[in-house]
Specification:
The chain contains three helices and no strands.
């Protein structure tokens, strides 16, 4: 089975994400939350953990 991942656990280190799935994830987040993600923001630091994604999406929502 799939191990439970903590919200602060690295999805890249756990093998959940790789560079190709990161692109799919970013597209999904843009479509789902109706936000545009700048190329400069497409870094692992923003998408490597559930906490990081939640914080990033929250910032984008507050900025718009």
């Amino acid at each position: 089975g799939v191990a439970e991942l903590g919200d602060a656990e690295s999805l890249l280190e756990a093998g959940v994400l790789d560079s190709m799935s990161m692109v799919d994830l970013i597209a999904f987040i843009e479509k789902t939350y109706g936000i545009a993600i700048d190329e400069d923001d497409m870094v692992p630091e923003n998408f490597d953990t559930i906490d990081a994604m939640a914080a990033y999406v929250g910032e984008k929502h507050n900025a718009s």
